[in-house]
TrEMBL record:
Source organism: Colletotrichum salicis
Official protein name in the record: Benzoate 4-monooxygenase cytochrome P450
Keywords: Membrane, Monooxygenase, Oxidoreductase, Transmembrane, Transmembrane helix
Keyword Membrane: yes
Signal peptide: none
Keyword Oxidoreductase: yes
């Protein structure tokens, strides 16, 4: 049975420790996933900025900016006709790539 006169700090310390463990695990997962996306993902051989390949965050920020077409055009000017724009996405600059890619 717990004492009602005891200090609440041990419970707070345990909660804080548990929170730190959860935060550490989330950050570790994000870093491991980014490492996998850049170095081991099947799309790793396609050109593009490593930060865009590691995570979807830069692509989403370009969308929020309201000028994703300008960002994509700049990437195509720098990297060529096929650019990896997110962890699982490619951008093609030629319309014929749609047929080649999707078979329609």
């Amino acid at each position: 049975m717990e004492s009602t006169t005891g200090s609440p700090f041990p419970k707070v310390a345990q909660l804080f420790s548990a929170l730190l463990v959860v935060v550490f695990l989330c950050i570790s997962y994000a870093l491991c996933k980014a490492f996998y996306n850049v170095f081991f993902h099947p799309l790793r051989r396609f050109p593009g900025p490593k930060s865009w390949a590691a995570s979807r965050i830069p692509y989403v920020l370009a969308q929020i900016d309201g000028k994703p077409h300008k960002h994509l055009l700049a990437l195509h000017d720098k990297y060529g006709p096929i650019v990896r724009i997110a962890d699982t996405d490619l951008s093609f600059i030629y319309p014929d790539a749609w047929k080649d890619n999707n078979g329609h």
